[in-house]
Amino acid sequence: MGFGMAEFLDKRVMSEREWDKYCHYVAGLVGIGLSRLFSASELEDPLIGEDTELANSMGLFLQKTNIIRDYLEDQREGREFWPQEAWSKYVNKLGDFAKPENVDLAVQCLNELIASTLHHIPDVITYLSRLRNQSIFNFCAIPQVMAIATLAACYNNQQVFKGVVKIRKGQAVTLMMDATNMPAVKAIIHQYMEEIYHRIPNSDPCSTKTRQIISTIRRQSLPNCQLLSRSHCSPIYLSLFMLLAALSWQYLSTLSQVTEDYVQTGEH
Question: Which Pfam families does this chain map to (predicted)?
Fold first, then answer.
């Protein structure tokens, strides 16, 4: 992993193949390593650790989502991870997407990368469907549904090039509560895929490709999906759980900021 990351210290991500390679080093290898631990612990079947292609794809889906969402932050910090093969079709420099006059081109490239990233969803569904341990399932499923929700929020959204695009805290809590079984995860993925599908602009150069990708995933991986009811949960316990989760999220965010400020103060 360290060797692979070092390779890209002074090297731009040129092609989509190199994008896959970079994401493999920083996230795919994590997925492979964790999958082997799941199997070695005998909490999961040996197949989980043996099928490195699916484990790698799980990591790639998360990392590509982060790279797409973090365009502006990375630009401000002098980092570039969008593949030049994609963005060079629209502008001369990746940073040009942040210019107001290029916003339409920026959104077209954004949509192209999101469409490309959706190719990992069938692998995500197959991997999660093989898991048997509930704790491992939750650990793996929650980041994946967060990622598809983030892609839906970013799709065709100019705000990616103007500020920060994040899913709401209440939305995140709902996803954490729902993503505890495979039918629910499929329903969540289906929900956000439909959101993307209905926002595809006819004028987008990748509109046909995006519709085809989503239609294929619907047909092969998400037949007859609908969001499961949580009527079995008492409303009072549900409300308390959501409040506790929201407070915990706020606490961790505040603690992280305080720690960062403390470190920066120590450096000065």
Answer: SQS_PSY
